[in-house]
């Protein structure tokens, strides 16, 4: 009897835009290797498989049935509860039903680490996926060392105000910028527990695919990259290898492209904080709005309808000729437009890589999570942007002046673009993906 060749790979992203998009791109790459990728997402995420040409399997997150949805919707803690208590049994049933058809492995976003345990329970190979820099992974993976050295408490709170230098040399961040320090004290403790549990589960992983470039991993290489025998394989940045159209959770406003066509080359400031606009707060949104108006520079600002309600009365009418405010933008199209000269960003990893791909200068305002580490690299190491600490007129004008008048920045962006996305870098990333698939199929 002929043995059936395994071809299916299940991909389990964390259910957020910045995680689902790179996972869809990875799935698209797997198709080129003769793999049948199936991306499993909660049913509150609406992505049509026809739009992305990838098989999508929706499962219930159980929030509506079990009353777990909070007043703010499916927030981090509601989703975490669903992932830990509701989704595992559904995934196990899917794996059991599909095992006879030949499952190569599961690829699991580390923030969805609950799925690692299910794969192990079902006896299926499992690889981790980290959608950001190796540097941020190493920072979080060094929690045991930070506890041992008295840098943080048992609940993750900083025990001193000195800058924290990653135990492996870089980057240096402020204690208040640790990735789990978001929200009130109880929220911070819960997020710290989430990360410690996540890193404990990753100890069983044989492979970790990272959405970063070879050179970043080479510069961060040392014997303590992990505490175990996990093989680190940089396969990114994925945005350079494949483009997934219509993977956004929200409808894109294409009218901004016609508006851009009428603007002077390199004159427009593009502003987007991704899905992280809510922690900025209404006061800062208003401050930024007035500062943008005062600069008299043309701008495109991604700002949802809810946050627009807090703007000054008459503001939208006043800036109608100067700027364009949209609920969601086709970001890569905007960044690659010659009219855009600078990007004011929260420093999310996907946005950072898209800016480098589009060769745009950056003004940085990190808010949470890995964004502070990314900002360190943008401003201090790569020197392709500047950081601003507020949204006053002086903050904005000063940041714009620094970033636009730096004559050497264009050259540095070009070199970084080649290092991350040139032919050599792309070949190395694809070689790593091929190595992984060869290993997992053995």
Percent helix, as a range, is: 40-55%
Which sheet architecture does the biggest sheet show?
7 strands, parallel
Look at the helices and sheets and give the structural class.
Answer: alpha/beta
- Beta-sheet strand percentage? 15-25%
CATH superfamily membership of the largest domain: Glycogen Phosphorylase B
Shape: globular
Number of domain modules: 2
- The separation of the N and C termini measures 20 Å
Can you tell me the CATH topology of the largest domain?
Rossmann fold
CATH architecture of the largest domain: 3-Layer(aba) Sandwich
Note down, in words, how this protein is organized:
The protein has 20 helices and 15 strands. It has helices at residues 17-31, 49-52, 63-66, 76-85, 87-98, 114-122, 134-141, 143-148, 185-201, 214-219, 255-261, 282-295, 305-308, 315-318, 331-335, 349-358, 371-381, 393-404, 409-421, 423-441, and strands at residues 8-12, 36-42, 55-59, 103-109, 126-130, 164-165, 172-173, 207-210, 231-234, 268-272, 299-302, 323-326, 340-345, 361-364, 385-387. The strands form 3 sheets. A 7-stranded parallel beta sheet has the order 3-2-1-4-5-8-9, sandwiched between helices. Strands 12-11-10-13-14-15 form a 6-stranded parallel beta sheet, sandwiched between helices. The protein starts with 7 loop residues before the first strand and ends with a helix.
Annotate the secondary structure layout.
Blueprint: E1 8-12, H1 17-31, E2 36-42, H2 49-52, E3 55-59, H3 63-66, H4 76-85, H5 87-98, E4 103-109, H6 114-122, E5 126-130, H7 134-141, H8 143-148, E6 164-165, E7 172-173, H9 185-201, E8 207-210, H10 214-219, E9 231-234, H11 255-261, E10 268-272, H12 282-295, E11 299-302, H13 305-308, H14 315-318, E12 323-326, H15 331-335, E13 340-345, H16 349-358, E14 361-364, H17 371-381, E15 385-387, H18 393-404, H19 409-421, H20 423-441
Parallel strand pairs: 1-2, 1-4, 2-3, 4-5, 5-8, 8-9, 10-11, 10-13, 11-12, 13-14, 14-15
Antiparallel strand pairs: 6-7
